[in-house]
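REQUEST ID: PR-0412
SUBMITTED BY: lab tech R.K.
PRIORITY: routine
TASK: structure prediction, single protein chain
INPUT:
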Amino acid sequence: MSDHSTPHAEDHHDDHGAGHGTMRDYVIGFLLSVILTAIPFWLVMTNAIADKATTAIVIMAFAIVQIVVHMIYFLHMNTKSNNGWTVMALIFTIIIVVIALSGSLWVMHHLNTNMMPMPHDMGQLP
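STATUS: complete
OUTPUT:
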């Protein structure tokens, strides 16, 4: 006869190895997300950085930091949950995405370089 109303049984009922966030964690995550969204928005709207490439790099850096904030504060990803498998899955996913994106950019760059018409007059071609 097992009694599920005992305090000992309740301790093991909802334990999946992942930590559950507190209201404080959610508020901190929300505030960081708002700040990490507002700063790049301000950078673009005010032209605070004159060079567009530098602005793009800074915005991407803020995006990466915001992804980390979301993973920690909202998805509760850490090395303790599920014996670290969530972090391993994340690393694998990042590697696959980097390979796919860099390969796509490489192919598009080479297609743009090698397939564009020559600077001579196209009207002289048969």
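NOTES: Residues 8-15 have pLDDT under 50 and may be disordered.
REVIEWED BY: pending
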